[in-house]
User: Fold these one by one.
Assistant:
Number 1:
Amino acid sequence: MILSQKDIRRFWAKVDVRGEDECWPWLAGKTKHGHGVFSVKHKWIAAHRVSFFIANNYLPDIKLKHLVMHDCENPSCQNPKHLLDGTIKENGNYPGCIAKLKAKVSPMLGRTGELSPRWGSKHSNKTKQLLREKAIQRGGWHKGLKRSRLTRDRISTVTRGENHGQSRLTDEIVRSILKSKLRNIDLAELYNVDPSVISSIRRRTRWKHVKL
């Protein structure tokens, strides 16, 4: 990475520099996981990696499974004192990461401890029996199943976009993609998705519900 003095000044202008041992929050754009993003020569880079580079003049080699870890477990923090060169395994063994893995996740929306609005409360045994009988008449759960337009729209609204359990993007990130002048491949690398996803967003075949 090569940074000019102008880049460095521009970087620190986006950081809330506080006490020597406090977290220094990132004030500009972030990913859905809370990590800051910074543009260098029209390429987006994780802000905490830039902070680490400024302080140490090198970056951990991802090919050797090393990365920049947040010792404070605050993804927005840019204080070089809180940033460490560690392995992927070490990063995964931090208490905050372990807690996330152990958290209960809704199978419908992937949100911790929330009741899925798609299905509401559990069906009673009587309702289950009725649904089972209808399925047998159709020859299977998937055959002949028809929903009203209102039901289809409700399910689509609840599970689409950032509400989908496996979505890596948010509405805010999609708006940034639509406004960005970067190449598809650069945006794909930044947000950890396939370039085809970025292309489909820009062609408005995906995430069509997000308005600029």
Number 2:
Amino acid sequence: MYPFCEHLVPEDDSQMVVETRIVNDMKSHLTEQEFWQMVEHLHAVGKVKGKCGPDSRRNDLIRVERHYAKR
């Protein structure tokens, strides 16, 4: 769960976000469909364990537009 800086625009330090390394790795190693299945699974497990509330899903804040594995 190490923090990782992600450039939204290559080489533009004013357009950066922080994400966890594991999310960046998942985007690199999974297809987009596999990535979203993992996100949905983790959210469901979090709800069952009481770690996420029912309104915790904020799709307007999620950006996954690069690094998908090509298969």
